[in-house]
Design a protein that fits this description.
Shape: globular
Distance between the termini: 71 Å
Number of strands: 7
Length: 187
């Protein structure tokens, strides 16, 4: 009888310790990938860069590197940038327009989502150009949880996430500072 009680106590302690560890890990999660950014993890979406890593693994890596003091101000008080070394090996989605490649340039109207207005954009078809080398940095564009909730509410969507920051976009670039926004972002 004593052995059974001791065994149950050990199992209960293991469960409690595991539960505390899981709760601590969840509480420490400062950043999550917002659903708006999921398309960057889907190669068929055409969104560049396409991250070839499961979202949960990406979040775990980002949270392991997260340092609130490293956040840089964005275009609005609710927007921050987190610059990290490019640990996923993606290439920048920009290419210099030269006389040698300008004939490959395409233009058209596009929207990032069904609820945004299309804007005029230009691009090089992937199959027409050589992919540049991997970028040095990832610019993780973060929105505050409060802002994400406001934007979701305006579309009738709920948000029960608790992480204080949501990654709304990932840019691969060679500079550790904010680059000018694409026109579609300014809208």
């Amino acid at each position: 009888f004593v052995c059974v009680v001791v065994a149950l106590f050990v199992v209960s302690c293991d469960f409690v310790c595991m539960r505390v560890a899981m709760t601590t890990a969840m509480a420490a999660r400062q950043v999550v990938v917002d659903p708006f950014c999921f398309r960057q993890f889907d190669a068929s979406s055409g969104k560049s860069p396409s991250i070839a890593m499961p979202i949960a693994d990406f979040e775990e890596r980002v949270n392991g590197l997260f340092d609130a003091s490293a956040l840089k101000d964005g275009y609005a008080p609710f927007c921050k940038h987190l610059f990290l070394e490019n640990f996923v090996g993606v290439s920048p989605n920009v290419l210099e327009i030269t006389e040698a490649n300008e004939h490959l340039l395409r233009s058209g109207y596009s929207a990032r989502t069904d609820y945004e207005l299309p804007v005029l954009t230009r691009w090089f078809p992937k199959e027409s150009v050589v992919a540049p080398r991997p970028a040095k940095y990832l610019d993780l564009i973060l929105y505050s949880r409060d802002q994400i909730r406001k934007e979701n509410a305006s579309r009738g969507q709920e948000d029960d996430e608790t992480a204080p920051w949501g990654i709304v976009s990932i840019k691969a670039q060679d500079e550790p500072f904010e680059l000018p926004m694409a026109p579609i972002t300014v809208m």
